[in-house]
Predict the 3D structure of the following.
Amino acid sequence: MATETNTPRNTLVVGVGTVGCRLAARIREHNDELRFLFIDTDKYTLSVYRPADVLLIGEQETNGRGTGKRPDIGSRAAEQAEEQIKKLLADAEIVVVTASFGGGTGAGAAPVVAKLARDLGSLSIVAAIDPFAFESSVKVQQAYEALQHAGDLSEAVVRIPCMLPPSAAAGEMSFKDAFANAEEYAARAASSLVRMVANPGTMQVDFGDLRRVISEHDGAVIGIGCAKGENRVESAIRQACNSSFLDVYRIHTATNVLLQVSGGEDLTLAEVDDGARSVGGIAADGDYLLSIDVRPDLEDEVIATVLLSGFSARKRESKEAPPDENAT
Ligand SMILES: Nc1nc2c(ncn2[C@@H]2O[C@H](COP(=O)(O)OP(=O)(O)O)[C@@H](O)[C@H]2O)c(=O)[nH]1
Ligand SMILES: [Mg+2]
């Protein structure tokens, strides 16, 4: 049922590691009513944030120079700073931890931060960016292990694909633009997730529904699409559901699907209805939850966010090797 209030829940977004912090900063651009904390082992990357919002960890072992992409060092750094971290997390109803799981600080420390939040009674959610497809299989394996760990220590893990657009794969896009593009995708996906959990007023489904989708044992994945102009709702939904990343999860096997359509005040019921019908087959049993989020800051643009979970059968089949999620 729609809720009447638009007061955000007491939500703290914690960026962990270089990319995790950058992602948290991007989320803040559109959600500055929430609280933010930036944690890293690297004092240089932290220097761009307000000193009051940052926590440098692991200084003894790393001298403030990062972990050299070693999750074990990241994890130890967070454990050693447990008391400081707990003080900063206290009182938050929801803690969303953002990190890239291809690194050391994010992959190692983010699960620990999520655990501390959970121990304090917060709903702790980890938004994890996958490594790029072109990174080493060791890194992919490391990220997979960090995901399992985060799943054990938090309420929910939501994976954000690190997608490069087809034009990048075809060699038409510069490396810099391709990175910026992937980061934009991650920022939009993470912002949508944070809005969903933090703003009761945005949901046409209740918080329990959202929790059911994201708290599935094997974690959830998030897809996002944006479109303007004619058939914008349908295009945005198709993009959200058709990322190559979601393909490897065979989204048709998802048993929990939450689709959110966000648009400006010009969003009409008819276009949402048409758009949602056009993709009615996204879930295994054809059933999905639909949420509408009217945002005055969106003009003409429509953002579709799809959260999927319940891939257990498929995961069991592929237990030997993690799927090559980023294959384009
Ligand atoms: N989207 C995006 N991902 C990046 C970028 N740089 C690194 N990554 C990803 O993030 C991983 C490293 O994570 P990072 O946050 O730098 O490591 P940490 O600081 O040790 O947590 C790499 O393996 C990549 O998968 C970037 O500029 N944009
Ligand atoms: Mg770093």
The longest strand covers residues 220-227. Residues 175-198 form the longest helix (24 residues). The chain has two domains: 11-202, 227-317. The CA atoms of residues 228 and 300 lie 6 Å apart.
